[in-house]
Amino acid sequence: MTAARAHGGASTLTIAGLRAAVGGKEILHGVDLQLRSGEVHAVMGPNGAGKSTLSHVLMGHPGYEVLGGSVTLDGVELLGLATFERAQAGLFLAPQDPVEVPGVPISDVLRAALVAAGRDGEAMPDTLARKMSDEAGEIGLAPAFLVRALNVDASGGEKKRIETLQLAILAPRFAVLDELDSGLDVDALRAVARRVARATAPGASGEPGLGVLAITHYRRLLEELRPDIVHVLVKGKIVASGGPDLADELERTGYAGYTDPEVAVSAIGPDPFGGLFS
Amino acid sequence: MSGPLLGSDVAAFGEGVSSSLPGPAWLVARRLEASRALAVSALPSETEEQWRYSRIDELDLGSFSPVCDPPAEPALTSGAVESFLAAVGARSGLVRCSGGFVQHVEVAESATSLGVSVTGSAGLAGRPEHLGELLAGRADALTRLADAFSPDVVVCTVPAGTRVEEPIVVVHEVGSERDGAAVFPHTLVVLGPGAVASVVEILVSGDERCLVVPLLEIELGDGARLEHTSVQQLGRGAWHLGYQASRIGRDAIMRSFLAALGGEYARQVTSSALTGDGGTSELLAVYLGDGVQTQDMRTFQEHVAPRTRSELVFKGAVADTARSVYTGLIHMHRGAKRADASQTNRNLVLSEGAHADSVPNLDIEENDVRCSHASAVGPIDSEQLFYLATRGVPPEVAERLVLLGFFDDLLARAPVPGVAAYLRAAVAERLAAGVLAAPGALSSTGRWA
Which of B39, B76, B165, B239 is deepest in the core (most CB within 10 A)? Predict the structure, then answer.
């Protein structure tokens, strides 16, 4: 991973035939998706489609059981790795509702994460503090949050700005944004979306841009963060994929056309991974 | 039922031994009185409400004997004491005790010129006012044992209207390297009306088996303000049975901070009586147990006067097969109108073999009062650990961050900044070297790999 980062090569995140269960109930029935550096993919779908399960499974939450399939980052299988190792490999999850961590300031978490990733130079207190301050300014996060315990006494919008700040500093290869737009007012939405969009552009010395998997209910976020591809997730499967127009269509017609099982089957065609893990 | 009377079977704690201890006549007389009361006392037993969940039935008093002479050699713990004193920084006074004997007293000129007195019994004209009064309500065989065998008493007196800028530090070293040494430190802090002071005490021993029964009495005059810090860093061979009692006058404010880190069995009784209208007490404690340690905390918030306020926050963590006990009583006396009390006890249980009990109690004799209590026992929140892991923080680092964070709101309230930093480092070191390094630590909380 480190070598790839140093060489600045573009990366690929490949989700293939991913099946997962919660509490013994299968929620993801074989998800296939490929995301490259600099791309923005949106995953949209109705409640209960498995959007949040997908984000948790990608990051290795212990409450979810993987039944089959694979998730690789530049060919490296992530499903066997611990959550922190997936993060170190370059995957980031901005959860829908970031948990409060009493008594632990953001700087301690970022420093620990950078040191664990061997990025000691960036973890130097002065360097990190300057970068945090710059990012907070750009994202519109009050400086008080930089010294406060992580997410404690933060509003929904502030929590998402805090997530975006961590994303900006950790600079992962791929970010899963789980309902980044929930609880955000228009200004906050614009601020975080612009920062994420900027991260998707290639760096000054040619480093590949961030790949984004934006899981969302609404088109609102996608107006700010223009997706290259929109996927429709229904009943644990991606039933349709298309360009940005698909989001507009969903806004008009809703998911009704996709929740009919026969339509879903015809939309995706034969499953190339079907039967592999059954 | 209690056990046999002490006079009949524990020769080492007999009247003859007590009367051989040195000191002024009033102290000798006080010991004599206590040793006679002791002879007809019985050790408490776990069947008594105050001693439920304790380990008092394991106490073999006959295997200990009091330290009757000042330890001659410098204590092995002097290195620890020096680093603590360096952390405290500037101070207005220092008392060093070893084996319960006051061996060194220094008071800054800036304090003595204001009439502040910090001394052992040798520096007192007579029996100090309030000595023994404050703990009278909590007296039992162990406080009598301490009264009968305490070789000296440290008395800090701050006159009315006087503000002592820097903390007064009292160091208690067990001092004796003898197996089975019993040591009885006693401290009395008296603040006159409107006086302001900070007192910091540390209690240390080596690894040898010892019995330590420290008594601390605090009297706050009307409008006085005291910050008191106790750091208990005894060795793993120590049995500690500590008693602290305070009486808070009208509009007086006390903040008491306890860090209980050491001992094999460490029990601390903390009692605060709010006897003056509008008085406030804050009772804060951090306790840690690993290995086979037991941390045993008993608290009493006694609201006697109207409009009194108390806030108690005790937080602990146990790992390995360590245990902790918290029992706390909020007692609203008749007449404590519009008194307001809160009591919070939170415990992290870090391994399957560890155990924490938390038992809040209320006794309310007055209608017009507010009381709240919160109690929690459980593992580290696995969602917090997962969240930190999504940032790339390895589990052992995440656990340490979350644990330190758990204690951080309390450590931030430690009265002396240098002591807060010292305790933060001490807790971090314990979490790194002891609690978290322990086999089986956190296994029940779902460490994912």
Answer: B239
